[in-house]
Design brief:
Length: about 200
Amino acid sequence: MRALPLFSFALLLTTMPAQAQRFAWDGSIGVSSDAWRAAATALWRVEVGRSLRLGVGARLSHYGGETSSYRSPDEDRSAALPLRVRLAPSVWGLNLAVEGQVRLIGPLTAGANLDLAGIATGGSRRDSGLKLEPARGSLFMYGDRDRGSLNSEFFLGLQTGSALALRAGVSHYVTGYRGTAGGASTRYLRFDTVPFLALRWVP
């Protein structure tokens, strides 16, 4: 239910005048000491007034990193399954994303975007009889309620020319795995925050 206002926001964009609509193509890379992710986004944007831009589109993300601890947030987790597991993530996620961006001063902007829902895939592995694989379905539910793997960005942007813009900020994302053993299963999540750089093209 928490995601319904965000879906309504995406639907609202379809009612905007055609002359205010533009497509944008975006690539970004975020890296920390033990985690990284890369993303490519196709975004349909509309201008609301002179300073606000809203967008909806598809984002393909790849998540990787060092071997790290994942924990299960489920209160009804089976006692047969561990509370924490350690693994090196390798997940591909394709999600519906929304974005808001506001013009600050001159070519400087600020904004944020968020994955709402989609699918994920990646290699599976076994650890002491426990099968671990990326959660197939992704859905923004907020915090530990999140399902799957979802990306978000908070950024400042700088328009460098008529078509290109630079973006920089922090990316906060979750990667999710499903662990199964016998007849029991549970979710395992890890949240990471990494600095990122991006280049956006608006033809």
